[in-house]
Amino acid sequence: MDSRIASQRVERSSTRSLPIFYRNLEESLDERRASHIFNHVVQNGWQTSSAVDFCSGNILSIGSSNDRRVAFLAELDQNANLGTGSSGVRLMDGNYSYLEHTEREIAEHHGAEAGLLLASAWEANVAVWSAVPRPGDVIIHDTLVHASSYEGFKQSMAMEVVEFAHNDVDDFRRALHQVWETQPLVRQGKRSILVALEGVYSMDGDVCPLQDLVDVARDMPGIDGDIPNGNIQFVVDEAHSVGVLGPQGSGLVCELGLEKDVAIVVHSYGKALGAIGSVVLGSKTIKGILTNFGKSFVYTTSPSFPLVAAIRSGYALLKKGSAEQGQNRIQLLSKLFYELLTSHPLWDLARDKGILSVPLADGWEHRPFLTHIVAISSPQYSVWWMYFHLAAASFCVFPVEYPTVPIGKSRLRLIIHAHNTEDHVRGFISSLFGWVQEMLSIEQGETQADVPKAAGDVYRWMRQEGLTGFGMP
Ligand SMILES: Cc1ncc(COP(=O)(O)O)c(C=O)c1O
Q1: What CA–CA distance (Å, rounded) separates 382 from 455?
Q2: Burial, 460: exposed, middle or buried (Cβ in 10 Å; 0-12, 13-18, 19+)?
Q3: Whose CA is nearest to atom 4 of ligand 1?
Q4: What is the DSSP letter of 415?
């Protein structure tokens, strides 16, 4: 963390002698440094120390398991004729039968007609949104979809892009009716609406009310007043739900049995499956559109054998029960987390005073399943104080700030993994409320300190170094 804070030091004086090209670039970076949002690549405590991993994307823990290693090496052994590179773009010399076979297997696993493997879900979302909406189509999206979908919207040929409030079914209905009324070609069934959603939202950790949204679309009137035209279609990014939800980790769409109601599903392999890459699932028509108009498919080297082997070995584990085991553990640990949180003697006071806010704690007992992502908020400045406290207690939890989340919505993002233990959760809650206690003591004037101890330690060092920001009063 020290290096991240230190990296915010404005460089103006040391870059004056650079050629104008670099000076201009440094000026743009200085704008970020001055706002303390300069991106700096950090060493992860969970990899380099004994700190508890409450942050990595290795949700089901299969990315680091020995079973995974064995399955991956077996793939390599059984396909010794395949090399490390794919040697070309998919449409020319980069296609190979192992890749095609894996795509068919994956499509079958998720109940889809076809699948297309790509290098990442970022590329998948950009490919989908830049290629699938045809001129005159309209995109309606949840306001919290990932930056890659926003990037795709910008490149799309859609006539209009309309957003609705996060997970708000009524606002979705409003957006749908607004488009229906203002776009005659859509109303007449000649153009389509594409709805962009995520299975589990990456920063808030809440599950999409997919069934309700599908029902709202089904209720829309058709050309003759009562028959839906099939021109409202759903696209679901399951980057954070693949592996974690659904039978054998097949995701939210499969969990809800909505395979026929969702036109396109994107899965990332960079998280629960412990690999890298992505798949776009849909009909053969969708695959045809992507292979013809998806520039991030057409003009790039096709996925290499080791990458596809890593994905395939991840599925082998899902099929052997790793998904169910991991899902059960995440449910158990998440339940313990919410139980300990909401039954803690300081919880109500911390919440009422605005020191702590955990939106998903409301009504957690009534949810059919709990997710592995928990957003823990506090006022903007004290998110850092909370972070410093937990880091000092050896818990790796990442602070998420603007521009990843809107200004004023900073939070710590806790990720509960299958490899976490009950003691990790108990220790985390105990440390969190230790911090709450310090905050209450400061507020009630019981101490001379104006910030909690861990923050005080960091700020002392920052003052010596002439650094500011990160909640420093
Ligand atoms: C919701 C969502 N979609 C897509 C992506 C991009 O995934 P990938 O890392 O495979 O590019 C992410 C990455 O964090 C994500 O959170």
Answers
A1: 9
A2: exposed
A3: 121
A4: E
Please state the separation of Cα 143 from the chain's center in Å: 14
Find all residues with CB under 8 Å of 96, minimum gap 6, and list them. Answer: 82, 86, 305
**Ligand 1: which of 202, 238, 269 to mutate, judged by most atoms within 8 Å of the beta carbon?**
202
Q: Give me the residues paired with residue 262 across strands.
A: 234
Could you tell me the distance, in angstroms and rounded to a whole number, from the CA of residue 440 to the centre of ligand 1?
Answer: 38
CA of 331 from ligand 1 middle (Å) equals: 23
Q: Specify the ligand 1 atom closest to the Cα of 276.
A: 10
The one-digit pLDDT tens for each residue of the chain (473 residues) are: 778 888 888 887 788 889 999 999 999 999 999 888 888 887 776 777 788 999 999 999 998 899 999 999 999 999 999 999 998 999 999 999 999 999 999 999 999 999 999 999 999 999 999 999 999 999 999 999 999 999 999 999 999 999 999 999 999 999 999 999 999 999 888 999 999 999 999 999 999 999 999 999 988 876 554 446 789 999 999 999 999 999 999 999 999 999 999 999 999 999 999 999 999 999 999 999 999 999 999 999 999 999 999 999 999 999 998 889 999 999 999 999 999 999 999 999 999 999 999 999 999 999 989 999 999 999 888 999 999 999 999 999 988 888 888 888 889 999 999 999 999 999 999 999 999 999 999 999 999 999 999 999 999 999 999 998 888 99
- In whole angstroms, what is the distance from residue 473 CA to residue 470 CA? 9
d(CA 204, CA 166): 10
